[in-house]
Design a protein that fits this description.
With 140 residues, this protein is an alpha+beta fold. It has one domain: Aminopeptidase (3-Layer(aba) Sandwich), CATH 3.40.630.30. The protein is built from four helices and seven strands. Strand 3 and strand 4 form a beta hairpin.
């Protein structure tokens, strides 16, 4: 069952995101565990965070800021269920960023109907790594 995360879930959320992020070996490691706890504590407090098993989706307005699945859960349907949940929460659509080199995530999102809108050289993100902005909108 998908549930809304609370401040008590921040350690669990970081425990999902850190090993998932570690799979992206093309990225620099810029933050400590403690910084992650502080950042995601604020994300839970100021946005909407949802947990299913060992997966998490975080929204800020009409932007999906994070969708991460623990590496042990990839391919189990957790990501699909969370993405579908976000669609129900934002039925008019939402956008999100993905690193261009994250082929697995890009295939996942494109399979789920998202469209690439903007490609960058990465100058606007803290990792300085090329990314792409996607958008999901309902079919009309």
């Amino acid at each position: 069952m998908i549930r809304r995360a609370t401040a008590a879930d921040v350690e669990e959320i970081v425990g999902i995101i850190e090993p998932s992020f570690a799979l992206l070996d093309f990225l620099p490691n810029l933050h400590t565990h403690e910084e992650g706890l502080a950042f995601f504590g604020q994300a839970v407090q100021n946005g909407e965070a949802y947990i299913l098993g060992r997966g998490v989706a975080i929204l800020a307005g009409d932007r999906l800021t994070h969708l991460y699945i623990h590496p042990d859960e990839i391919g189990t349907g957790v990501g699909h269920a969370l993405f579908e949940h976000v669609k129900t929460l934002r039925p008019e659509g939402f956008d999100f960023w993905v690193f261009q080199q994250n082929d697995r995530a890009r295939r996942f999102y494109e399979t789920h109907g998202a469209v690439a809108l903007e490609f960058t050289d990465g100058a606007g993100n803290e990792e300085k790594t090329p990314d792409v902005r996607y958008e999901w909108k309902p079919e009309r």
